[in-house]
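Hi all, long-time lurker, first post. I run a small reading group and we've been trying to get comfortable going from sequence to structure in the token notation. Rather than ask abstract questions, I figured I'd post a concrete chain and ask someone more experienced to write out its structure so we can walk through it together at our next meeting. Sequence below, copied exactly:
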Amino acid sequence: MNEFGRRVIVSLIGAPLVVGIIWFGGAALATLAGALSAVAAWEFFRLAREGGSRPFSVLGVISAACVPLLVHAQYLGLIQVPTSAPVLALLFLIALAIWRRGVDGKPLTAVATTALGILYTGGTLSYVYALRYFGYAVGDVAGALVVVLPVILTWSSDVGAYFAGRAIGGRKLIPSVSPGKTIAGAVGGLVLTVLVCEAYVSLLLRPRAQLAFSPGGLILFAVCISVVAQIGDLAESLFKREAGVKDSGSIFPGHGGALDRLDSLFFVLPVAYVLFGWLLIPAPSA
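-- Answer (accepted) --
Happy to help. Here is the structure in token form:
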């Protein structure tokens, strides 16, 4: 089977499974986010090692996996994570570097890459849970639709950029980071994202969840999502170039690794959460 066939099969199996877990939410969604965070963190730390760093990989992977689970536990009222927890965790990493890395073990990069890997994977993916239980989204339908919107827009931006870039070509966007991306592709991604956002809000979010945007708010939301999705893609390309690898992993046949599939969502999910708070408004039933 060729690469395209593998990509299609993985997508046909994975997409319905993910949507179903988003619908159920709760522990299932937190567990999925934790598992993906762990795999993505492991790949991130592998890239860091290829680049000459010595992160605390095992500790980082476990910590990344625990972040969405802690968010779930706090939502249920089972625990109360203190606001000082991130700072205390950072201090613990610095103290650990004294004994485990020493002067010759690049302690600064070890601490920095470990902290970054945890936040970049588990920290960002935990926002899928926050979106699922966003304030205005009352009920399973509304919660699921709120989560799926930024995911759909991320895919739309990627598809629009791909086809516009191939059809028009032209000047490269940032060739030193990603030689295949063009300015025309970036614009195409923006345009398709706005169109898909309008269709999604009109056909699903407004009638089924009684949520909407103002006209200007819809355009602003879609444009911001497309921009940060493309930045997320470029950021992962930058990391891979430093490490000298083509793909972050091979866990998804035809798609590469978890970082390759989630790179844009690492940026999109937390940004979408902030934008929803600013721009999403209740709307009357259709």
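A couple of things your group might point at:
The two ends are 46 Å apart (CA to CA).
The longest strand covers residues 211-212.
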